[in-house]
From TrEMBL:
InterPro entries tied to this protein: PepSY-ass_TM
PANTHER family reported for this sequence: BLR4505 PROTEIN, IRON-REGULATED INNER MEMBRANE PROTEIN-RELATED
Record's keyword terms, sorted: Membrane, Transmembrane, Transmembrane helix
One Pfam match: PepSY_TM
Protein name: PepSY-associated TM helix domain-containing protein
Length: 427
């Protein structure tokens, strides 16, 4: 027979998930926290699908160039480095769009450490140089993103606002955390649009009870209209909101995005550069840019043939020297590219020996990479042409609308709670 003590031991309880009220509170405070970030990102993001056109319109003297003949970025780069001793130029576009200038981004090295210097003696107040890609004639300069230099930096400044509130590394981190919260809140918000459970078997189907969440009562009170715009707007846009939220994590918070995507089978091309980090930067490799370009094109053709592809002349190509890893990275265009600009297929090789280290295919080889790259292309409005660019601009404004309507809902409910508390105290 069981003892009294044994009989009084309580049975273990099942772990209960938080109820709907808890998730309402989570969504409310997540929304209030994100309101500023999403409003800024939405407003600036509505302009970024047109950044090339807006750059040309706000600073035509920099971006537009009249030239005939064949551009020679390699020669222009050599002339620029001879003109500015102490400068380094690690990224070189190898293709130039007709009617456009060649933009080169320079930086200055510390002669002792070999690392980049941002300020100090000998460091000028500019880093972007715009040149005629045929003659090498300089068209203008700017410090990228410095709005104090005027209209020529308007679009770079808006771009900085978009991903970091123009607060550089700190802002990028904060925006990355906000993007992660946004990603989680996408699922919380979706859950809250679902009809609550009924204590008894419902007389109507689930879809009939869910249908009001999709509707907007245009001819209603201002509060109900605001509420419907927030709930139904978020529901109709939900798939793309999630796309933009998670892709924002990839841009701003790789320390979270990379391990998650690796767990799903992705191969991040940035890891080869981190894993090959050198104790001292290799600023003067055996292969100069001309030799590296020739080697890169050989490797690109070899690796493309293995995949049954060919490097395409149309589309972008570029060469990036990474001194801290002792490598060159060559970007070129193949049928595996997703974005309309191309240049998304890449090869990394040793900057001394020319030995290939890695090859990256944006689609068709690794399913998770293909998925991730599609998210990036959707975020950057690099697919589906003009109609999708227009849609992304509208989406940016709608994201701002969702932030504003969410704050309005909170203010209205806060006012109602304050009114109830006042009435209770007066009774």
């Amino acid at each position: 027979m069981a003892t009294t003590a044994q009989q009084s031991v309580p049975s273990p309880r099942r772990l209960a998930l938080p109820g709907r009220a808890f998730w309402v509170m989570v969504h409310r405070w997540a929304g209030l926290t994100l309101a500023l970030f999403l409003a800024v990102a939405g407003l600036t993001g509505s302009l970024l699908p047109w950044i090339e056109e807006l750059e040309a319109a706000t600073a035509p003297e920099l971006h537009n160039s009249s030239w005939t003949g064949t551009p020679d970025p390699l020669r222009v780069r050599e002339e620029v480095l001879a003109r500015y001793p102490g400068a380094a130029l690690d990224f070189l576009p190898l293709s130039v769009e007709p009617g456009k200038a060649l933009r080169l981004h320079l930086h200055w090295l510390d002669p002792k450490t070999g690392l980049e210097r941002e300020h100090g003696p000998g460091v000028p107040e500019w880093d972007d140089l715009f040149l005629n890609p045929v003659t090498g004639e300089e068209q203008g300069r700017r410090e990228w993103g410095n709005i104090a230099q005027g209209q020529k930096n308007l679009m770079p400044f808006l771009y900085r606002l978009h991903y970091s509130l123009a607060l550089d590394t700190f802002g990028t981190l904060i925006f990355g955390i906000a993007a992660l919260v946004w990603t989680v809140d996408c699922f919380v918000g979706f859950y809250l649009t679902l009809p609550p459970k009924t204590p008894k078997p419902a007389r109507t189907s689930f879809l009939d009870r869910w249908r009001p969440s999709w509707r907007i009562r245009w001819k209603s009170t201002p509060y109900k209209l605001n509420f419907d715009l927030h709930r139904a707007g978020g529901l109709w846009l939900w798939p793309l909101l999630l796309v933009f939220a998670w892709s924002s994590v990839s841009f701003n918070l790789p320390q979270v995005h990379v391990p998650v995507m690796q767990a799903l089978g992705a191969q991040d091309p940035r890891l080869i550069l981190e894993e090959s980090a050198l104790a001292v930067p290799r600023n003067n490799p055996v292969l100069d840019f001309r030799a590296a370009t020739e080697r890169a094109r050989q490797l690109a053709e070899q690796e493309s043939m293995k995949q049954g592809l060919v490097p395409l002349e149309e589309g972008e190509s570029w060469l990036w020297h990474v001194p801290t890893s002792g490598m060159y990275v060559y970007g070129f265009t193949t049928a595996a590219d997703i974005g309309h600009h191309g240049g998304g297929t890449g090869i990394a090789f040793d900057s001394n020996t020319g030995k290939m280290k890695a090859v990256y295919w944006p689609s068709g080889v690794n399913g998770t990479n293909t998925f991730s790259n599609w998210l990036t292309a959707l975020h950057m409005a690099q697919v589906f042409g003009l109609p999708y660019r227009i849609f992304v601009s509208m989406l940016g404004l709608l994201v701002t609308m969702l932030s504003v309507t969410g704050v309005v809902i909170w203010l209205k409910k806060r006012s109602a709670r304050a009114g109830r508390s006042l009435r209770v105290r007066n009774t």
